[in-house]
Amino acid sequence: MKHILIVDDSKTVRNLVAFIMKREGFRVTMAEDGMDGLEKLFTATDLDLIISDINMPRMDGFTFIKNVREQENFRDIPIIVLSTEGQEADIQKGIGLGANVYMVKPAQPEKLVRNVKMLLG
């Protein structure tokens, strides 16, 4: 069973994305910001994909992605950004830092699931 880390400061969004992913048969771990996300990343040994917001307290999504990509073990883990920030500059920055897919909220659940399945092969 594939394991997904959801990083978002909104409990509502975390729960909604978790519900969608669990319904598709994925195992889910949740984190409330980038710092929490990194802690979960280092303690979980079997994460297959990350879904992350950008605007979060303590550590934003851009910094989180940069930190993930700097770790040799996690360089290849697929990352989907799910953010309200839909400006071209934000999208370019997210992809430039190493996100595989950048989606703007509110994203259609089917499209999110399609992207997850595509990245997981």
UniProtKB/TrEMBL annotation:
<dbReference type="InterPro" id="IPR050595">
    <property type="entry name" value="Bact_response_regulator"/>
</dbReference>
<dbReference type="Pfam" id="PF00072">
    <property type="entry name" value="Response_reg"/>
</dbReference>
<protein>
    <submittedName>
        <fullName>Two-component system, chemotaxis family, response regulator CheY</fullName>
    </submittedName>
</protein>
<keyword id="KW-0597">Phosphoprotein</keyword>
<dbReference type="InterPro" id="IPR001789">
    <property type="entry name" value="Sig_transdc_resp-reg_receiver"/>
</dbReference>
<dbReference type="InterPro" id="IPR011006">
    <property type="entry name" value="CheY-like_superfamily"/>
</dbReference>
<dbReference type="GO" id="GO:0000160">
    <property type="term" value="P:phosphorelay signal transduction system"/>
</dbReference>
<feature type="modified residue" description="4-aspartylphosphate">
    <location>
        <position position="53"/>
    </location>
</feature>
<feature type="domain" description="Response regulatory">
    <location>
        <begin position="3"/>
        <end position="120"/>
    </location>
</feature>
